[in-house]
Automatic annotation (TrEMBL), chain A:
SMART domains: AAA (SM00382). Residues 2-241 form the ABC transporter domain. It is found in: Cell membrane. This is ABC transporter ATP-binding protein. It comes from Nonomuraea terrae. The lineage of its organism: Bacteria, Bacillati, Actinomycetota, Actinomycetes, Streptosporangiales. The keyword Nuclease does not apply. CDD domains: ABC_NikE_OppD_transporters (cd03257). One of its GO terms (molecular function) is ATP binding. Keywords: ATP-binding, Cell membrane, Membrane, Nucleotide-binding, Transport.
UniProtKB/TrEMBL annotation, chain B:
The lineage of its organism: Bacteria, Bacillati, Actinomycetota, Actinomycetes, Streptosporangiales. Belongs to the ABC transporter superfamily. It holds the Pfam family ABC_tran. The keyword Transit peptide does not apply. SMART domains: AAA (SM00382). This is ABC transporter ATP-binding protein. InterPro entries: AAA+_ATPase, ABC_transp_ATP-bind, ABC_transporter-like_ATP-bd, ABC_transporter-like_CS, Oligopep_ABC_C, P-loop_NTPase.
């Protein structure tokens, strides 16, 4: 579902992300870990062609679309629909004056879907949210509910790929466990490809199949999560693991 | 005698109480306040800093009630450490630290910056010219300037990268001060606090030695918190009970979320002693250990 080769993202001549290889298949979960400024979020945004003002080279294919070559029309068709972005604070991305149900209906219409109501009901059920929440405004729901709504939106639109940037780091641990549970289940039930950006190595170790460790824009280590996190080969990965409290 | 003690305090904003009948001693070895957003941790910290007067009950500072105490002495003894964003963005960090020092001791800025592991030349920079970890060190240096006996730390590392967090935790462990730590990060509490209090909906539901609390939680909420924390190479974090349910207005506040809830939980559970800790749960004996 995601295939990246020799991706380089540069701002003003400075390379902020250099990813030689990244593949995520259907039903797989790959995590990019690293600290602030390591280039992990930039990599994620580059996969949807959202790095405005940057010089991007290499090859990026998402859901069969060549992101760096495709015309804007084609990109719009995968963005949000086939490949959905889930951010750290969904409430900040949701229009504060629009009820959640109106928002979801509008998104479905925008992507040319006319099965609004049944798709919405199924999506809400998939993330274990009470459909009554659709009548609320974003500030009337909790952080965990807003995050599950963001995932429901992706499901309703028929996402095959979810790109999640620190999706649980603003949530309480109990709520985080719930959101992670939803993502894990959807991945199996719907064969979703999940690319997760996180600084939480412990969390990553429990859900990711493969891991890329990034530092200062470069991938310093990658491989199966169980191996990389149990027997880290790079000193930086070791440092990250030793820093866990 | 403990430096600070809450005695049956109820706290709130306007007439709405958000912390109910909490008794808590800040004892040696660090005290942790654990709970989710909205559990009342920060409200309690505000009361301990004298920023909020209890609706009922008292905060004791030594042998005096805090609201009657000499606030100059209190501010020297008890200092807050909030997230690094509490620095004035326009002020050079050296001046931020100097402000906390008496006029004749301003030369100590360099010494304080060194104490928290910062290069004294950074004093000339403004907060945005420093990294998140460096800013947090400045906040700690400023708190240490008056030589406090107790630091009240509100999520001091939650916005930091894990390697930076580790270094700040090392710094805090090495300081010669007592601490009250507010956090939702159980691993951090385990490292810094000998005793912990778990708050749910403004009430202490369990308190005792941190190690025991996490190894053998006696309250279903403590267990839910512990099991929700992902462990390296461990099983995926588990959600126990429904996190969406609002706290119950009568009886045990946790009962609508609790997997062990029974009819008896419609009665408010008293805080009772059990295996060397205090727990407010009718069904504490039935909480599975593993």
């Amino acid at each position: 579902m995601i295939e990246v080769r020799d991706l380089k993202v540069r701002y003003a001549g400075r390379t902020v992300a250099d990813v030689p290889e990244l593949d995520v298949g259907a039903g797989e979960c790959v995590a990019i870990v690293g600290e602030s400024g390591s280039g992990k979020s930039t990599t994620l945004l580059a996969l949807l062609g959202l790095t405005e003002g940057a010089e991007v080279s290499g090859r990026v294919r998402v859901c069969g679309v060549d992101v760096l070559e495709a015309p804007p029309r084609e990109l719009r068709r995968i963005r949000g629909a086939r490949a959905a972005l889930v951010l750290q604070s969904p409430q900040a991305a949701l229009s504060p004056a629009t009820r959640l149900g109106v928002l979801m209906r509008r998104a479905l219409r925008l992507h040319g879907r006319d099965d609004g109501e049944p798709a919405m009901a199924l999506a809400m059920e998939a993330v274990l949210l009470d459909p009554a929440i659709l009548r609320r405004y974003p500030h009337e729901v909790s952080g965990g509910q807003a995050q599950r709504f963001a995932i429901a939106l992706a499901i309703a639109l028929g996402a095959e790929v979810i790109l999640a940037d620190e999706p649980t780091s603003a949530l309480d641990v109990t709520v985080q466990a719930e959101v992670v549970g939803v993502l894990r289940r959807l991945r199996v039930e719907r064969d979703l490809a999940l690319l997760l950006v996180s600084h939480d190595l412990a969390l990553v170790s429990t859900i990711a199949d493969r891991v890329l460790v990034m530092k200062d824009g470069a991938v310093v280590e990658s491989g199966p999560a169980a191996r990389v996190l149990a027997e880290p080969a790079h000193p930086y990965t070791r440092e990250l693991l030793e820093a866990l409290p | 005698m403990t430096l600070l003690r809450a005695e049956a305090v109820t706290l709130g904003y306007g007439r709405r109480p958000v912390v109910h009948d909490v008794t808590l001693d800040i004892t040696e070895g660090g005290v942790g306040l654990i709970g989710e957003s909205g559990s009342g941790k920060t409200t309690l910290a505000r009361a301990f800093l004298g920023l909020l007067t209890p609706i009922s009950g008292n905060i004791w500072y030594g042998d005096q009630i805090l609201k009657n105490a000499d606030l100059r002495a209190f501010r020297k003894d008890v200092q807050p450490v909030f997230q690094a964003e509490s620095l004035d963005p326009r002020m050079r960090v050296g001046r931020s630290v100097a402000e906390a020092l008496p006029r004749n001791a301003r030369h100590r800025v360099a010494e304080l910056l060194e104490q928290v592991g910062l290069d004294p030349t950074l004093a000339a920079r403004r907060p945005h010219e420093l990294s998140g970890g460096q800013r947090q060190r400045v906040v700690i240096a400023r708190a240490l300037a008056v030589g406090p006996r107790l630091l009240i730390l509100d999520e001091p590392t939650s916005a930091l990268d894990v390697t930076v967090q580790a270094r700040i935790l090392d710094l805090l462990t090495g300081l010669d001060t007592e601490r009250l730590l507010i956090t939702h990060n159980l691993a951090v509490v385990e490292r810094l606090c000998r005793t912990s209090y778990v708050l749910f909906a403004g009430r202490v539901v369990e308190s005792g030695p941190t190690g025991d609390l996490l190894a053998k939680p006696a309250h279903p909420y403590t267990r839910a918190l512990r099991d929700a924390v992902p462990k390296l190479g461990g099983p995926p974090p588990e959600a126990r009970g429904r996190t969406e349910a609002v706290p119950a207005a009568t009886g045990c506040a946790y009962r609508l979320r609790c997997p062990l809830a029974a009819p008896v939980c419609e009665q408010p559970p008293p805080l009772r002693e059990l295996d060397g800790r205090h727990v407010a749960c009718h069904r504490a004996q039935d909480v599975p250990v593993s």
